[in-house]
Specification:
By secondary structure, this protein is an alpha/beta fold. It contains 14 helices and twelve strands. α6 packs across α7 and α7 runs parallel beside α8. The C terminus is likely disordered. The structure holds zinc ion.
Length: 350
């Protein structure tokens, strides 16, 4: 899922996203709640209509941004009180409020509010966050069901989020508790926050081994291009990451020959394509020398073209993984990380 923080994947039009073949994007509840406000988006027909995006949208709960962006956070069992990073105004985000905002936005998939903690975390802290995350998931689900009973069938799905830091038994316990709540899909949260890739894989494997295969399993906030196939092999169906778009804006481009920094002087006279193996419209048309010039000149077009290529590279990687699954050749993509537990990659239906 490309990340469209403020109802916009930075640098790209919705037409360009459609051309890239993006079937779903992620939008950030925290940002849209503060600006322009979820009630305004509801009045304007919901997020799809507001941003003219006919394909799927997943909204996060807002929790992660509250933890990473806002000031004066105060956690309690009720929710998290914070001050807006925009104007300092005070807000209270509860599991019910996060559900209410996402219902107003009208995304296709809403995430429950969970408690994000730093990793590595002491066990007691991870246990407390796990308990609170389950309590909040229960409250979010109740709010959702009450809303549905008042307003008829909902078009939105609500996903639970497995926590438990880097403790395998806590991860399993969190998954077990959430399974009792019976969500239509599940996410694995609180990973890829600085721990080694093998640990991320190990924790994801613990969880995917328990979650039903016929419901989407979403690993939040990953990853680097070379890691995507590892996660799919562990049973992950959905991922999101700001890396392709953020790196693009800093001139860092992912290619079949590895990551390159387009600002480097060695590209000044390089008339070759950015990535000879990429079929995106940037690689078909523009040279490395031109892309380097645009970046060095701080042209808006540099951000646009770099983002088109990086997202294309990510989406192509996933298309190749899907193709390999259809051919039954999962193993040809695996880098090996996280697969040292003699666990066969789960078979997935195309
Ligand atoms: Zn390209």
């Amino acid at each position: 899922m490309p990340v469209g923080t403020q109802a916009s994947v930075k640098g790209l039009t919705q037409e360009a996203l459609e051309q890239l073949g993006a079937g779903i994007i992620l939008a950030n509840t925290y940002h849209l709640y503060l600006r322009p406000g979820h009630e305004l988006v509801r009045k304007l027909g919901g997020l799809h209509q507001f941003m003219s995006w006919p394909r799927a949208i997943l909204t996060d709960s807002g929790g992660y941004q509250v933890f990473s962006l806002s000031a004066l956070r105060k956690m309690s069992d009720e929710g998290v009180r914070f001050r807006s990073h925009l104007d300092g105004s005070e807000h209270l985000l509860t599991p019910e409020k996060a559900a209410e905002i996402q219902l107003a936005l009208g995304s296709d998939i809403a995430m429950v509010l969970d408690e994000c903690i730093e990793t590595p975390a002491p066990r007691e802290k991870a246990e407390a966050a796990l308990k609170r995350t389950t309590d909040w998931a229960r409250r979010a689900k109740s709010y959702f069901q009450e809303f549905a009973s008042r307003n008829g069938d909902l078009k939105q799905w609500q996903f639970g989020i497995v926590q438990g830091a880097t403790f395998a038994d806590l991860r399993r316990e969190s998954a077990r508790q959430l399974l009792e709540l019976d969500f239509p899909g599940y996410a694995v949260g609180g990973l890829a926050v600085g721990e080694p890739h093998a640990i991320t894989c190990e924790m994801a494997a613990e969880v995917t081994a328990m979650l039903p295969k016929h419901r989407p399993r979403y690993l939040m906030g990953v990853g680097r291009p070379e890691q995507l196939a590892d996660y799919v092999a562990l049973g992950i169906d959905m991922m999101d990451c700001v890396l392709p778009t953020r790196a693009a804006r800093h001139g860092l481009l992912f290619t079949s020959e590895g990551k390159i920094s387009i600002k480097q002087a060695r590209f000044i006279t390089d008339q070759g394509p950015l990535d000879p193996k990429c079929g995106c419209r940037v690689c078909r048309r523009y040279s490395r020398a031109y892309l380097r010039h645009l970046y060095a000149s701080n042209e808006v077009l540099a951000q646009v073209l770099n983002t088109v290529h990086n997202l294309s590279f990510y989406l192509d990687t996933i298309r190749r993984v899907r193709h390999s699954i259809r051919l039954g050749e999962e193993s040809c993509f695996l880098s090996g990380a996280g697969l040292d537990r003699n666990r066969r990659p789960p078979r997935m239906q195309p």
